[in-house]
């Protein structure tokens, strides 16, 4: 179920639409929004969301096979993914 939600969100973001899902960007003033390339920002967030969706799918499909400590590995991957998204969103996605 969680995978489906993340997958739909990532598809919307990867298509370059769905900027209203990006927290901070959707409430920013028009002057602030002009500083960012909206398509790049959406795609960056979509790629990050895809990584989390694939991880959720993997954990759901192989929950009986994966060792218990894989939860900690998954949390580490998610934390690194979020940090990379924040850094890329503030550097690569600026005009």
From TrEMBL:
Domain of life according to the entry: Bacteria
Pfam family, any one: DUF3784
Transmembrane segments: 42-62, 69-89
UniProtKB keywords: Membrane, Transmembrane, Transmembrane helix
Name of the molecule in the record: DUF3784 domain-containing protein
